[in-house]
Amino acid sequence: MRILDSPPPGWLHRRRRLLLDVLLWAVVAAPVGYAEASPPHSRYTLPLLVGKLFVLGAAVVASRRQPLVALVLAVLGSLVDGNFVFAIPVFSYLAGRRSATVGPAIMVFVLITAGGTALNLGLLGAGAATWFLLASVLLFAAVFPWLVGRYRRQQQELTDAGRRHVDALTREQRGAAERIRLRERARIAGEMHDSLGHDLSLIALRAAALEVAADLDDRHRAAAGELRASVSAATERLHEIIGVLREEAGGSLRPSGETVADLVEGAREAGMAVRLDAAPAVAELPAMTGHAAHRIVREALTNAARYAPGAPVDVRLSRDGDRVEVAVVNDAPSAGPLPAPPSQGSGLLALAERVRLAGGTLDAGHRADGGFTVRAVLPATAAPPEAIGSVAEGGLTSWSDERPGAVERPVDAERRLHDARRRVRRSLLVALVAPVGFGLVLSFVYYPVATAGTVLDRATFDQMRVGAARSELVGLPRRQLERSAAVERAGCEYYTDGNFPLAAPTWRLCFTDGRLVSKEWIA
């Protein structure tokens, strides 16, 4: 049995677009095709029809990527065939719907208006009434549909912005839960490392002291060695567990009320030679700095007990202005380090992260004489809450990535949603107000041109007497109003009373042999 291949993912989309374009072409071509198909026919009917349909097809194709080009083709086609006017609202709506910016559309409308005015008033000699009619057609058949399309585009952007906002909030909620989980894992890892790691190191130190005691018999010395080896193995397993639980930005807790002096005292009781030099000015430190200093001393003493047993250790805390320096220095072990599993360096890595979160810097490394130094510089004043929160959360509240495909923050999504709502309200207001405003502008432009020198007031009209010579009529306007076929009579002149905005004929004065034979008001 043959298995048919499924169509490619974009095939159905392209087929749907093609069907929509064909349907659009059929709609805009129907008025043109119907007019050309109606008799009478000439020998140029078929070529003209093919040319007009080709222009409409080109406009449909261009409407996908260059919708303003399609609108211009429809407007130019209306110069040859008035039935192209039916296509202008369609392509104008698509231009508003598919154009990302408004500047090019405004430029096109300005050029169409200027070109149409120059063509009708200059080259063709059309009157003001014809110009006003064509300008009104441009307003309601092109500008208004474009505004509606623009409004629909803004609505779609508002929908997309709302969806992105919901997605960002969902990601933020998931991220908050993940951060809580990671902080709890880091807290557990910190507790295990700080408490158990330190205690195990001290136990190993005591066991090592028993192992080298001179008054201990061989059986007890072997047991002490086994105890030290077991503690070292347990410490290594503890580091493996911490490596699973620890996250890079993890925090840790210290026993309540324990100070650096308590740490030093505990190490002395375990047999370490530790000297503490702490300035009185460092007694009161900010919480982040105090925790970091405690963590530095604990980690350094643990490493000294593990890798330099019997070597003297100096712990110094000093303050210089708004900075606090914490230094733990141990000499090289006299008999070399005891056998122990290789270090993974996780303690110093976590320590460096803790110092960074507190706003300080850490420097740790071997000395030329074989000893080891851990030195940190910390702020002596509390950092602003905003800065701490920004660092602790990995900068999530302090930066925005605008690159394509970057994860959008809820605050950015909220701003986009707000901007989309504002654009939709503005587009709706423009779609409702702009046609009225443009209509008033057209009226104010058309009215002075159409009525200049043609206004006859009622009082002057009433004073005119039938039978008077035309030269004797006082207040007769200097020019006549353009006449329409509905009211035109031979030998008659038409004037307006200045009605706004159409300036339609109001008075009819008929003359025979230069004398007024009738005057009437046109309803």
From TrEMBL:
Presence of the UniProt keyword Transferase in the record: yes
Domain named Signal transduction histidine kinase subgroup 3 dimerisation and phosphoacceptor: residues: 184-248
Domain Histidine kinase/HSP90-like ATPase residue range list: 293-381
Gene3D superfamilies in the cross-refs: 1.20.5.1930, Histidine kinase-like ATPase, C-terminal domain
Transmembrane regions: 68-95, 102-123, 129-148, 428-449
CDD domains reported for this sequence: HATPase_UhpB-NarQ-NarX-like (cd16917)
E.C. designation(s): 2.7.13.3
One Pfam family hit: HisKA_3
Gene Ontology molecular function: any one: kinase activity
Keywords associated with the record: ATP-binding, Kinase, Membrane, Nucleotide-binding, Phosphoprotein, Transferase, Transmembrane, Transmembrane helix, Two-component regulatory system
Protein known as: histidine kinase
Organism per entry: Micromonospora ureilytica
Lineage summary: Bacteria, Bacillati, Actinomycetota, Actinomycetes, Micromonosporales
